[in-house]
Description:
By secondary structure, the chain is α+β, with helices and mostly antiparallel strands.
Amino acid sequence: MKASKPLDEIVEDIRDAAGSVTLIREEDADTLKEYYGYDVDKYKSYAIYNPPIVNADTIHIVELSDIDDMTAAKAELEANKQRVIKAFDGYLADQYAMAQDGQIVTKGRYAMLIISPDNAKAVEVFNSSIN
């Protein structure tokens, strides 16, 4: 399976479909390792987008070099979902609820963490973009 377009374009399609706010792209591999706990050496490509302050919207998509690393990648994505949930616990109830409803989905060598106003639409775009 392969993405039908660059991951950054898939993120934009997801953002538009799911009604997410404008997101900020994280590019620095050291930041992705140290802050997010992502083992980027195992990724063939990635698109990590986070919200501005006071919003839980999150779109993280990774393409693994080896599908055998999927369990570890899903654990990394789950840890980041929990980080977002914790950030909004007792702070903004609507964002906390949205973070709790976040999903991790996989298709082939791709995995995605989605926290958005409409996860179903986001997952639909993700699935249709990986063939």
